Fold:
Amino acid sequence: MKKLLVLGVLISVLGLSSCKDRCESVKTGEVTLLDESRSFAPYEEGESLTYVNAEGSEMVLELSRNHSLTDKNCVKYLCELSTGPYEPVVCEYYNSESAQNLYRIGDTIIIDVLAYMSLYEEENTLFYDALRVYMSGIGTLSSGEAVLAPRFTNPPFDENQVYLLEELVFENTVELQGQSYAGVWRTKTGENMVWVKSGIGLLAFQLDGELWVLQE
Structure:
């Protein structure tokens, strides 16, 4: 009887070990940004752009670019019982695209414009394109996020189901230094603000109350 008990325990241990060996994440698809979403980060590594203030003074910003098709989005979790609290999540996943431009102002301030994709709900393939804008110095100066485009029609998209830490504001038209622009996203009103537009990226920024607009 004891031999049978030991044999049973051994089979169970071997079975669990075999399950763990098979429990690996598996890529099952990939999704890419819409062209319009990707165009919020249109510049290549090493480019520079010139911005002007109301007095005509110029500020040149150096840019860097990060482009990826390796963002991992779990669409189905696997082997949940065998995954420990400090182990990576094991799942079937899609790779998704992201595009990012970083604008550097001096040595301490960075404006980050990121277009990326996210899941509407857990364990599904309902993706949406999103935008994140972040100005940082010693801490956060201004930031915001927005949903750009749902990539599904069923179920109907409900923005209230999407958590955004700080929402960007969409302006149908906005006037900056006497020039009118259509279809612009901006961070909330304050001493430090950022305006972005598809196809242009960083259109303007306000730093300590002083407005700088892209010289086109």
User: Anything to note?
Assistant: The CA atoms of residues 27 and 91 lie 8 Å apart. Confidence is low (pLDDT under 50) at residues 1-20.
